Amino acid sequence: TARPPFVLGEVAEHYPDNETAVEILCASCHVPFVAGIRPRKIGERYYYDGLVWPSRLLVPWRGAENDYVVRVSASASPISDVRLRRVPLWWAVLPPSPKILRGLYWCGYRDCARFFAQEPPKERSALDACRCRRPAPASADMSPSGHGHGNNDAHVGNEDTAASRWSAARALLKKEPPKSEAEWLPKLDPTTGESVAELVALAEAMADRQSAAFYWLGIAGVTFFVPVVMAALYAFLVSQ
Questions:
Q1: Which residues are within 8 A (CB) of 106 and not within 5 positions of it... i.e. 6 or more apart?
Q2: Helical H runs in 96-190?
Q3: d(Cα 61, Cα 54) in Å, to the nearest integer?
Q4: Which pLDDT tens digit goes with each residue over 47-86?
Q5: Do 76 and 82 meet the contact criterion of CB atoms below 8 Å apart?
Q6: Is the pTM of this model over 0.85?
Q7: Cα–Cα distance measured from residue 142 to residue 13, given in angstroms and rounded to the nearest whole number
């Protein structure tokens, strides 16, 4: 945009044709420098991959004023509604084996099923303060969704809480989701014929191992470099 912060997150919900849908999908994974320096152009706007969106730590997101948006994060963002437990960020550019990716695929189904089956607390949480949004510009091609708002008391005043988003999303379902965790996923992957539970367990185990290794490497690096920097700074000050 022409005004600060110049870069905003955007909710893509209108796909007039397949070509536009493909362009939007390409823009949503257009990683800076990896996919090119210049952003991807769609119409008169330019886009990069949102990465750890939803998070106002990077850019505010925007949608129509009365919209409810369920935030889905593939990077374990703590202020999202549906997210993986933990996943190494470098998998976005250096993905693991297809078997692990199949496990992540089913993790997404499981986490979405859990979201719809378990009602969040109605009280506003401390993290809701980080979920503010910017209204869409008047000229933007975004219409207020208004879907599912009519019969939910949680929507009074369009208060943006986890409970109100959950109620709005539930109102759009065509059938009641299963409440039993055993019914959330099929027994076998229809594509590979492998056990879905085993694929999920393998994916989560590898994600945990690599995330933990990265964490301890970071701790070791800080433990090593901080004393070195402090010693160099002390030597410099003594020499003056």
A1: 185, 189, 196, 199, 200, 203
A2: 98-117, 162-170
A3: 7
A4: 887 664 545 555 555 556 677 778 777 777 777 788 887 8
A5: no
A6: no
A7: 8
